[in-house]
Every structure is written in structure tokens, then in C-alpha cells.
Amino acid sequence: MKFFKDLKWLFFRNVRSSLRNPVWLFIGLFQPILYLLLFAPLLSDLAMVPGFPKGGAMTVFTPGLLVMVGLFGTAYAGFGLVDQIRSGYVERLLVTPVSRIALLLSNVLRDVLNLLVQSVLLVLLALVMGLSVNLAGLLLTFVMMILTGILMSSCSYALALALKQEDALASVLNTLSTPLLLLSGITLPLTLAPAVIRFIASFNPLAYEVTAARALFLGNFNESAIIVAVALLGGLAALAFIWAVRSLRRGAA
Amino acid sequence: MSSKSIIDIRGLKKSFKSRRSKQGGMVEAVKGIDLAVEEGECFGFLGPNGAGKSTSLRMLATLLAPDGGDARIAGCDLLKEPAFVRRQIGYVSQAGGADTASSGREDLMLQARMYGLSAEEARERADELIRALDLSEFVDRFSRTYSGGQRRKLDIALGMVHAPKVLFLDEPTTGLDPVSRSQIWERIRMLKRGGATVFLTTHYLDEADALCDRIAIIDKGSIVAQGTPDELKSGISGEIISLTVNRAPGAGESARKLLETEEYVREIGANENRLKLTVTHGGEAIPSVLRLLEGKGISVIDIALARPSLDDVFLRVTGHTLQEAEDQSKPAAAVPAKTAKGAA
Fold first, then answer.
1. Number of independent structural domains in chain A
2. Does domain B7-98+146-233+313-343 have CATH number 3.40.50.1000?
3. Within a domain: residue A49?
4. Across the interface, do A97 and B65 touch by the CB < 8 Å criterion?
5. Which of A159, A143, A148 is nearest to A184 (CA)?
6. Quick one: which H or E segment has residue B44?
7. CATH of domain B239-306
8. Which residue is closest to B61 within chain A, CA to CA?
């Protein structure tokens, strides 16, 4: 089928171009690694504070860090697309009979692949630093990461197609991602937060994801946030992808 | 319009929301154009920046939905069957479209794949184009390292991968140095010899004159004149023959009297021994003029034919020169916002 062929060749092209510039993969990892090395140790004493989740500093902090990589690693994917729109590359492909869905999906899958590689590297480093983790829980966490990647990179592409300029895209993405990050309990658990903030955070899918990932790392599969997080992320990822495909169909330049 | 036309456009129009609040409302970028292009022809859209050339081309290339009118390209309905139109056309935008993260050869292969060619076919076609367009010197380097002319050659090759019936070229030589420019001209002539229909836009008069079989002059979203370059030029005022006869007393005056009555002479003016004749076809008139004067013993010292340029045509049909139109369009936001960005 044309769709799968298109997807295969475009994905191949995207991965090839990522491999030619692997430095970006590591630059994307630099910040989370700093957090792991310089921030996680601060938490070790906090683990005694009442309200701090079970499992010790690394087990509490690593899942949050993964979600952070999921958020920032893929949310800026739209910049590459703005550049490709400007160079005429996107338009050139749109004039061909290429499947529009394949065109977009080939980019989203590349972003998800990059995200998974980064996540694995991060978990390996955390293991070296003393993390202990439930393996099945870790794999399920990666499933959530994939959904997060699809959600964030689709949103980023849809915004890139609407705004078509780096400056505008940067402002919108920063405006959106900062509250998402602060209200997710990535750095410090929301269980320590005042009721008002906890209430606002209850609308943030990433907050459920962080809670779910922490439970999964401990092997606690009964945590209700897991179902909520997977359902929310899956639904939103699908909607975001449809939004991005529609933006692409409406014309890319 | 004949039913054989490979491109048949009727009443095609497009408006954009104006960016300037003062004007408010909409800017009519293309105000309902009609035209037909025949198979194998090189057709040129000539006009200043912001005249609506790129917008028209983007509509024909299925990238922009028209607000009204319809068009058939290679037998397919542009509005109802855009997917079929895409298989018949190639489009090279002003920005080009080469993938900066790939080599030219990889990019040609990808493009061929997008048109559904098999690995073998894609490789053959890429080799063929690399030979024909003379890309071998740089095609295996990353395209981000190319010069402007090399980029443009690759862009054209990308547009040709599936041997389209119609190739749209938006400003194919804008921003190129003279050498690259003449190389691109040579490639376009080659495509035409190969039987392709080429539809290009340009704001260079000499380019339209050198490449196009027929030209439509577009200004402020409307077609203001259409025809072969020669038709357009002779429609202006014919051609002008300037001649100088020998200085013998009365030679100029007798030459004037002799020529006045010739039927091919539309206007004549004399100033001592220098004469200016307006004729319909200068090439045919010159031998007759020479025969007539020499027969009566009046020797001609100098004779020259001045053809009106497309510049004169443009001035006549729009009331301003192309350069003036260009200067005017620069500060104005009448350029559709979307096209303007693409052009940057």
C-alpha cells in the first residue's frame, strides 16, 4: 500500500538525518542529566519529610525526569518543521501524491524513537546512581512515554503549521510547557503542594503520568492514576495527531 | 479555447485577508483569470512581484484552494481530482525544496519513491536526470553545500522525476548569477525539446522573451495582455526602421516621397537624410526598402531595425514600466501574506 511505502521511505530519510546529527540527541539529554546529577541528591534528605512518596529519592525523581524529557524532548519538534516549510521541502512533498498522514507520522515516529533512546540512556544512568525499578512497571512507563511523545510532537507540528515562524512558536511553546511542567510534580511531588495547586494540577495529564510512573517504578499496579494517565494521554495523542494532519492538509505554506 | 489544451483555466481567483488593518477586508490576489496552454508549449507569466503570479501557480499546483473558477490540467479537474493532477504535474517553487539534510542523489531517490517508482526505476530515473541536467559533479554532496545555480538545477530535477506532462517553474532564475541563469535557460529549452509543457513565471522581460512561446502579462491580479512575444510587440506599434541615405541634396526628401506610397509603410518621418519608418514586419520591409531606393539611385548608408521590447508592451498595457511596478510593490502589503513569506 502506498501509505506504508511512503511512511517507510520518509521515516528512513528522517532517521538517516537524525543519525547524521546525533549530537542533538545528546544535547537534549544534557539538561535531564544535570538534573539527575545535581538535583536528585538534594532530594535524599527530603525523603524523610511527611507526605514525600515512598521509594527513596531516585525512585521518586527518575520517573518525573522521564516525563520532563518526554515534554521537552518532543515539544520543540515543530522548529524543524518550520525550517522545512521555509526551505520549500514540505511544499515540494505536498505536490507529490504522498500520503499526508504518512508525511506527518514519519516525523512523529522519528521523534518518538529519539525520545525512547534518550529515556533508555537516562534510566541506565539512574540505575548506576542507585535506582531500583520494577521491570514490568518500567516497560509500561515507556508506553506512556510513547503516548506523550506522540501528543507533544503532534501539538508542536500543528502549532508550527499554524504559526510558521520560530519566534511565535517559541513563545507559544514556552507559555504552554512551563505551567505543564510546574503543575506536574516532576521536580517535587505534588503531595507536598497546597490544596489549590493540587486542584489545578488535577487537570494536567502530565501530573497523572508522573504519579502513574512513580507507582509503576515501585511495581504498584493498583494505582488509579495509571488508568487515568494512559486513557488521557492516548485520547489526547490521537486528537493532537488528527489536529496536525488537518493543519497539514489545509496547506503548509 | 480548444479542448486539446493541456491547461485550461477559467475565472480562477483567490483573495487573502489583508494584513494591514487600514485596508481591512480582503486583498484580491488573483482576480479571475482565463487562459489556455497548449501541449508542448513554454508559457510564461510575466509581471512584477505581487502581481499574483505565484498565487496562480500555487493554485494550479494544488497547494492553494481557489476561491472561484475552475481549471483542467492534463485532462484532470483541479478542484475535484487534485490527487490525479498531482501525478501529471511537477512544481518547482521559488524556494526550491531540496532537502538540506540529504545529498542530491538521495533526495532524487526519495522524490521518485513518493511518486511510487520502484527501487530500480528510481535509480534509473535519478541517473538519467543527473546526466541530462548535468548534476554529477555535486549530486553526491549534501545539498546545503550547493551554490545557488546547483541548488536550482537539483530543484528542477526533483520536479522532473516522474516525467510530468506539465512542469511549473516559479521564478526559475531569480537571484542567480548570469552564468547559472543561462545554464538554467538551456535546461528549460532542453525540457521543451523533450516535449514537456513548461509553465513558468518571471519578472524578467528578457527571460520571457528568450524562453516562452506565449506570454500572459499579469498586473495586480489580472491578465492584461496575452500572445506570443512577437505578437505582443508588433501589437504595440509595429517595428521601426531607421535609415540614413547619402547626403546628396534632396536625397532624403525624394526617399521619403518614394517610400510614403509603399503599402507596408504605416508612418514615415524624415529629418534631412535620416528617415524613420514604422512598418508591420521589419524583416520583410528592409529588403523592399533597399531595392526601391537603390533602384532610384539613392544609396543607403545605414539601416537598422528596432523592435519594441516587452518593456514597451508592459508600459503600454499597464501604464507603468515593470521597474516602476516592482518599486511600488515593495512597501505595499498587497502581496498576499502567504506568498510573500514563501518568497523570502
1. 1
2. no
3. no
4. no
5. A148
6. strand B42-46
7. 3.30.70.100
8. A95
Contacts of B87 in chain A (CB under 8 A): 97
What is the rounded CA–CA span in Å between residue B122 and residue B281? 50
Q: How far is CA B73 from CA A33, A106, B63, B164, B198, in A?
A: 56, 30, 14, 11, 12
- List residues of chain B with CB under 8 Å from any CB of chain A: 61-65, 83, 86-87, 89-91, 93-102, 106, 110-111, 113-116, 158, 338, 341-342, 344
A102 in B contact zone (CB under 8 Å): no
Asked whether the beta carbons of residue A87 and residue B96 sit closer than 8 angstroms, the reply is: yes
Q: Mapping DSSP to helix (H, G, I), strand (E, B) and coil, where does residue B175 land? A: coil
Strands B265-271 and B274-279: antiparallel
Q: Which residues on chain A are in Cβ contact (under 8 Å) with B116?
A: 2, 5, 97
Q: Taking a C-beta distance cutoff of 8 angstroms, is the pair B60, B324 a contact? A: no
Separation of alpha carbons B277 and B243, rounded Å: 8
Single-letter residue type at B134: D
pLDDT in tens, chain B (344 residues): 445 799 999 999 999 887 665 556 788 899 999 999 999 999 999 988 888 999 999 999 999 999 999 999 999 999 999 999 999 999 999 888 999 999 999 999 999 999 999 999 999 999 999 998 899 999 999 999 999 999 999 999 999 999 999 999 999 998 888 888 999 999 899 888 888 999 999 988 889 989 999 999 998 899 998 999 888 877 766 777 888 988 888 888 888 888 888 888 887 878 888 888 888 787 888 888 999 888 888 888 888 887 777 777 777 777 777 777 777 655 443 444 343 333 33
Task: State pTM to two decimals.
Answer: 0.81
